Amino acid sequence: MSRLGFRIEAEAPGSQARAARFTTLHGEMITPIFQPVGTQATVKALTVEDLREVGSRMLLANTYHLMLRPGPEVFAKFGGIHRFMNWDGPILTDSGGFQIFSLPHSRAITEAGARFQSYVDGKMHLLSPETSIAVQKAIGSDVMMVLDQCVPSTVSHAEAERAMLLTHRWAKRSFDARGDSPQAMFGIVQGACYEDLRKRSVDALTAIPFDGYAVGGLAVGETKSEREDFTEITTRLLPRDLPRYLMGVGTPLDILEAVHRGIDLFDCILPSALAKRGTAFVSRGKMQLRRTAYKFADEALDANCDCSTCTRYSRAYLHHLTKADEVLGWKLLSIHNLVFYHRMMAEIRASILDGTFAAYRATRREAWAGTDEDTPVRTGKRRRPGRISPDSSVNVGDHAELVLST
Ligand SMILES: [Zn+2]
C-alpha cells in the first residue's frame, strides 16, 4: 500500500498531464509540484519564511552533502531536518547517487556501494544502499530515494545495462533497508537512451512496491528531444496511479513539456542559480539585470508579477545590486524566480483541472520560444571549455549542478 495515497483528480485530454494530490508526513500536496533545492538544509539566500511567502510547499535536500556535514548524528539529535531547519512542510531527499556520479575522482563503485573521499575532511566513506537509507532516515525526509548508479546517457548499451542491473539490486536493498519506517520511497528507473532497457527497468522496479518512481539517468548528456522522448517512453510504462518524478529538470519550458508527458514532481536549482547571476524569469522569457540598459530603469522587474520584489524595487536597484554582487540582489531575484515557478505550476494545474491544458501549453510554448537556452545540463564534469558554472561555490554534484552556455 502506497504511503502517499496518490490520487488523480483530472487528466488533460490529448496529453499525459494530470493533476493529483498526495499525503505526506507533513501535509497534503497538490501536483504538478516544483520543489526548490535545499542542498545544505537551506534554499540558498532564503529563509523558510521567504519560502512560505513565495509559495514553496515541498523542498528537496541532498543526502550526500548532509551526511558529510553536519552529519546524520546532528539530525538524530534534532529529531530530523524539519526541526533543524525550522521547515514544517514535506522534504524529499535524494540518495547521493547522482552526487557520487558527479565526483570526477576519488570514487570506486562496487557491488557494495560507492566509496569516495569527503570534500569536507578528506576521509573515505562508503555510500551503500543501507548507509544512504540510514542517513535519509536520520534526516527524516518525507520521501526517500533509492541509491542508484547514474551513468552518462550517451554510454553503450552494455554499460547502461550493467549500471541498470546494479541499480535494480541496490533498489531492492534500499527498499529492505527502509523496514517499517513511515517515510515514503521512490524507485529510480534507469536505462539511458535505450527503450528496451527502460522497459526492463520499469518491469524490475515496479515488482517492488515503491510509493512512486523517478525517471533517472536524464539531463546527463542527451539532447533535449531525447530527454523528452525518453521521459515519455518511461512514463507510458509506469503505473498510472503512482507519482512520477523527473529529477533535476529544469527550465519553465522543460517542466511544461514534462508535465505534458506525465511527470508530477520536479526539482531544479535553476531559479536560485540564475538569480545569483542576475537573471530573472519574466512573462516573455528571461531578463539579464546586469545589462547597462537597466541602470536608470524605474519600472518594476515584471509588470505582470505581484511578488514582493516586483512591487517594491525598481529594475535600476536590482541592476545595481547585481552589478555589485550584493547578496540582497540574489535574494530578491530568488524570491521573484520562485514565485514565477510556483505560479506557473499553479497555472498548469488549473488548466489541467478545467480542461484547457492544451491551450495553455500552446500559449506558453510560443511565449518562451527561443528563450530556453539555459536548459540545465547535469554532467559529471564540473566545467566545460567555454562554459561557466553559474555558482562557483556550488559543490560538485549539487543537485543539479548547472553548466550554462555563456
Ligand atoms: Zn516578481
Output the number of helix runs. 15
Low-pLDDT regions: 372-406
Q: What percent strand? A: 15-25%
Number of strands: 18
Q: What is the CATH domain class of the domain at 7-269?
A: Alpha Beta
CATH topology of the domain at 7-269: TIM Barrel
**Head-to-tail CA distance between termini:** 48 Å
Largest beta sheet, briefly? 8 strands, parallel
CATH architecture of the domain at 7-269: Alpha-Beta Barrel
Spatial ordering of strands, largest sheet = 4-14-13-12-11-10-6-5
- Rg (CA only): 20 Å
Q: What average pLDDT do the residues reach?
A: 90
Tell me what you see in this structure.
By secondary structure, the chain is an alpha/beta fold. It has a domain at 7-269: Queuine tRNA-ribosyltransferase-like (TIM Barrel, Alpha-Beta Barrel), CATH 3.20.20.105. The protein contains 15 helices and 18 strands. It has helices at residues 48-54, 63-68, 72-78, 81-85, 97-102, 129-139, 157-178, 195-206, 224-237, 252-260, 270-276, 308-312, 315-323, 327-353, 357-368, and strands spanning 7-11, 18-24, 27-31, 33-35, 59-61, 91-93, 107-109, 114-117, 124-127, 143-145, 184-189, 212-215, 244-246, 265-267, 279-282, 285-288, 387-388, 404-405. The chain has an 8-stranded parallel β-sheet. The chain has a 3-stranded antiparallel β-sheet with strand order 1-2-3. The site of zinc ion (ZN) has 8 residues, from helix 12 and helix 14.
